[in-house]
Amino acid sequence: MSSTPESAARHRRSAGFSGTSTPRDLPTTPRGLRTRTKLVEAARVVFERDGFLDARLVDITTEAGISAGSFYTYFDSKEEIFSAVLAEVEEEMLHPDVRQVTNGDDPVSMIRKANRAYLESYQRFSKFMRLLEQVASIDEDFRELRRKRGESFVQRNAKSIRQMQQDGVAGADIDPMMAASFLSGMVARAAYSRFVLGESWTIDEMVDSLTELWANALKIETPAS
Amino acid sequence: MSSTPESAARHRRSAGFSGTSTPRDLPTTPRGLRTRTKLVEAARVVFERDGFLDARLVDITTEAGISAGSFYTYFDSKEEIFSAVLAEVEEEMLHPDVRQVTNGDDPVSMIRKANRAYLESYQRFSKFMRLLEQVASIDEDFRELRRKRGESFVQRNAKSIRQMQQDGVAGADIDPMMAASFLSGMVARAAYSRFVLGESWTIDEMVDSLTELWANALKIETPAS
Amino acid sequence: MSSTPESAARHRRSAGFSGTSTPRDLPTTPRGLRTRTKLVEAARVVFERDGFLDARLVDITTEAGISAGSFYTYFDSKEEIFSAVLAEVEEEMLHPDVRQVTNGDDPVSMIRKANRAYLESYQRFSKFMRLLEQVASIDEDFRELRRKRGESFVQRNAKSIRQMQQDGVAGADIDPMMAASFLSGMVARAAYSRFVLGESWTIDEMVDSLTELWANALKIETPAS
Amino acid sequence: MSSTPESAARHRRSAGFSGTSTPRDLPTTPRGLRTRTKLVEAARVVFERDGFLDARLVDITTEAGISAGSFYTYFDSKEEIFSAVLAEVEEEMLHPDVRQVTNGDDPVSMIRKANRAYLESYQRFSKFMRLLEQVASIDEDFRELRRKRGESFVQRNAKSIRQMQQDGVAGADIDPMMAASFLSGMVARAAYSRFVLGESWTIDEMVDSLTELWANALKIETPAS
DNA sequence: AATGAATGAGGTTTCATTCAT
DNA sequence: TATGAATGAAACCTCATTCAT
């Protein structure tokens, strides 16, 4: 693994991921922009292949086809370029299919669709998700950053649950926030088990099972079932 | 992660966690045994405090009050002593309260008890659990090791679900293995959110909520409720 | 220092301050002249602020508001632009008040005026004087250059002392060259103590004290005192 | 000189010389003590030969005959080992001839003896004195440290001057502190001119001249002259 | 069995200088 | 002339591991 003397040394002093450093301005010239892009793409390849810890800056610059010193024209540290990769991937995750949950659907269909969308996205970005998991386990700041982002997602789910309770569709004795948090966690964990740990379920199986558990858990009444 | 060609060079002296190295025999003399124990305890302190990556062998030996060189009388690497710590903690986790689920209880009570036991154990060992999470995210071998151990736990749960289905207590259309895996995952994730990420739920709230979600998910009929 | 065999390798690209390089011609175009001037002024600011060693060329070009590459249109090295700054400051030091010692004055008044002029000039250029001190301590060539320049100053003083001896005003048993050198050194050192090290004497106190010591040292007879 | 790209980089971040860091304990074992001594001696050789700036740690360890990594067993930085060299040389400067100014002597003899002792010491340690000068010009902390040490020396001289004034031996209208400071500065500067800049005076000439100037400056009455 | 000093590989980082535009 | 991105040569520093005592 990664605790050889060399790599161990590399991890000792973290530069911090979030908040502490303001991202520097993008380069103004086309050439600079091109190089920066090459660097970020190379970093993603290397990070996903080797993990954050084993990724050496020289691997990244080599992959990008530039000299080691040029790295510092664009980033100050491995952490900083990781943040850039993160931003890029998030961009990519959101853009292609504007996660549109058709609101006309019945509750269970909506849950099913959301679960499928989540799993498919996780699959597509599975290498990156493993990377995220690693960085989160290494860096407290990043962990906190991630938690905060998850919170808003949970809140939306909680709101939706509350609505269902008011509509008499979901069980009234359930705490919406905790339920949203725990059920989202269940799905996230399942995706991790499948795409990082390598469990052998099919996505369809997973969607079916998770949707049923989720719907049952909320005691959602399916009128014509 | 640990076998891509690019990073191979840096792993020359890597030890790995599982399989590759047989744990060496315990020292024969009482003095040796005592020193080994001191080392393992020190390692646990340092690992839990600094994380696996930032823990230096010299920190461990200093904490143990022995010289740096003596480390190698007992262990070959950081990975090996980590395994020893792991074994020690597992011992400790099992010993004190032999997780006895009284089989006379009704299903929901049993689930509730299991959930509570899990959360309380997680709380007691929260520092260690965070450490486990980190090491799992770093090392593929360890991840696999962990997955395997979890499997038997899931299998037991699955068996129990199957039993409830046969008893007509739980919904018949549910896949027992997946349900067991996903619901266990839900609880594990909740514990992680609470004790590592720092969510502010009380354990009682969590037990109530998780138990209800779990029981609902399985459509467990509670006759006299 | 700059020619020991061991460190020679590191000096391959060293420029040196004096002799080795002929100052290149001034740019012909007005624009070029303007840019050069901006550079020299920026260099002075940066050198005085950060010292010679910590001054980076990029700091200088940034301060000048030009690009890093343009530096080499005008100068070959940090040493060369330092020489230009030196020339500029020397120009400035001489220009404003043409150090005219009224020859009608009595010897002690002349000494007093010279001392005051020296101290006031040192104060005005104290940042630069500290810089000079630093560069002298770093570079043997520059040290030699400076010594030579000081020599003519000492010689003038020595001549004046010799004159006073012939006039019977100063003690005859004094070596004029050494006296000139040592007493000038005393004043220079006092100025350094005051304006670089930060001693808290007032200039008036210093002038009084230095003048008295100087005059006494030469046994100057003050007829009507 | 030393502003090649390589060495410039080395100077950028100073670790500070004084106060900021507590000197670590001496090694306990004889072997460690021996190695540390070798290092300090090697550092002195390299510093005196190459100057502080051009001295590389690897030069020092090579000179000491140990590996580069071992440096950090004893010192944290170039600044720290410089402090150790400084301490060693100060030890050496004080030991051999316990600067005993025979108090029975007449004032001028005492001044002469002190001047000669100073110059001879400066000559013996001229390489080190040049080094001191360099470090002082580079590092503000060290400059301050040095100033403070000089102060007590000046104070002693001032006290002696005050005594002479009370005894009617020295001119009463002289400020003792300033006179002490300026005259000491004169001697120090003369020594620097001679042994660092390379002026070609003999020590005897210098002693004669400096002593006469000093005595005259204080208007010391030499009864039988 | 214990000690602790010594080793050495190699990634990171800096910035004067070059060069294509 | 001007630009500013790209280069590349080293020095620094760390710490798991070895080894003489």
Automatic annotation (TrEMBL), chains A, B, C, D:
Cross-referenced InterPro entries: EthR_C, Homeodomain-like_sf, HTH-type_TetR-like_transc_reg, HTH_TetR, Tet_transcr_reg_TetR-rel_C_sf
Alphabetical keyword list: DNA-binding, Transcription, Transcription regulation
Biased composition (Low complexity): 22-32
Domain of life: Bacteria
Keyword Lipoprotein: no
GO molecular function: DNA-binding transcription factor activity; transcription cis-regulatory region binding
Region of interest (Disordered), residue spans: 1-34
Domain spans labelled HTH tetR-type: 33-93
DNA-binding region(s), residue ranges: 56-75
UniProt-listed PANTHER family: HTH-TYPE TRANSCRIPTIONAL REGULATOR BETI (PTHR30055:SF234), HTH-TYPE TRANSCRIPTIONAL REGULATOR RUTR (PTHR30055)
Name of this chain's protein: Putative transcriptional regulator, TetR family protein
Natural source organism: Aeromicrobium flavum
